[in-house]
Amino acid sequence: QVQLVQSGAEVKKPGASVKVSCKASGYTFTGYYMHWVRQAPGQGLEWMGRINPNSGGTNYAQKFQGRVTMTRDTSISTAYMELSRLRSDDTAVYYCARVYCEVSCYEDYWGQGTLVTVSS
Amino acid sequence: SYVLTQPPSVSVAPGQTARITCGGNNIGSKSVHWYQQKPGQAPVLVVYDDSDRPSGIPERFSGSNSGNTATLTISRVEAGDEADYYCQVWDSSSDYVVFGGGTKLTVL
């Protein structure tokens, strides 16, 4: 069965960086794009960007360009999202989600989420 | 950038029908997906490509999309349907994914 298991909660100081991992199992990792989506406390879902695990190609939402880096390690079927220059408003739960494409593309499986808290 | 507009909240009595709208410019030309999110949990896909249901999602969940409005309809609402619901599309002009602001469904 498809599973996406994310790394544990993080507490970071403003200005620091955080790297969240997402280990995939139950499917061919390189066959599906991966999205990263975040959710601030009490707020809605916010798309951060995508990575093509096969090529490593990325597309980042404009809001995060220059601060976010999405990478992958195909040898261990793991995707990563690194966010730098953290601010207090980056406090959120960060999700990875597998992207299924047929007629269109949508997230069919999600990780459990990783809480990142930014606080001095 | 493309904007999706949802009502912040919808309330419905058990057994009744809930309709959650998602407005966007000519959204009828796009494929709309709907996600259910319960407190403390990751989102779950409930409708994709406007009106298709993933396996395991009850037939009570259905969707439609035309003009400037897409609609998620939940028939015979149950207490367990209480959750936040988000619509989502892919904006081809920017190659970005866009989420609506979310609608909190309350079962009275």
Q: Could you please describe the fold and organization of this structure?
A:
The complex is a heterodimer of chains A (120) and B (108). With 120 residues, chain A is an all-beta fold. Helices cover 0% and strands 53% of the residues of chain A. Chain A contains no helices and eleven strands. In chain A, strands 2, 4, 5, 6, 9, 10 and 11 form a seven-stranded mixed β-sheet that branches. Chain A is globular. Chain A starts with a strand and ends with a strand. Chain B has 108 residues and is mainly β. Helix content of chain B is 0%, strand content 45%. Chain B contains no helices and nine strands. In chain B, strands 1, 3, 4, 7, 8 and 9 form a six-stranded mixed β-sheet that branches. In chain B, strands 2-6-5 form a three-stranded antiparallel β-sheet, with no helix packed on it. In chain B, strand 5 and strand 6 form a beta hairpin. The model of chain B has no long low-confidence stretch (mean pLDDT 96). At the A-B interface, strand 5 and strand 10 of A face strand 3, strand 7 and strand 8 of B.
What is the topological layout?
The complex is a heterodimer of chains A (120) and B (108).
Chain A lengths: L2 E4 L3 E3 L5 E8 L8 E6 L5 E7 L6 E3 L7 E6 L4 E6 L8 E10 L3 E6 L3 E5 L2
Parallel strand pairs in A: 2-11
Antiparallel strand pairs in A: 1-3, 3-8, 4-5, 4-9, 5-6, 7-8, 9-10, 9-11
Chain B lengths: L8 E4 L5 E6 L9 E5 L6 E4 L13 E6 L2 E6 L8 E9 L4 E4 L3 E5 L1
Parallel strand pairs in B: 1-9
Antiparallel strand pairs in B: 2-6, 3-4, 3-7, 5-6, 7-8, 7-9
Question: In short, what is this structure?
Answer:
Chain A has 120 residues and is an all-beta fold. Helices cover 0% and strands 53% of the residues of chain A. Chain A has strands at 3-6, 10-12, 18-25, 34-39, 45-51, 58-60, 68-73, 78-83, 92-101, 105-110, 114-118.
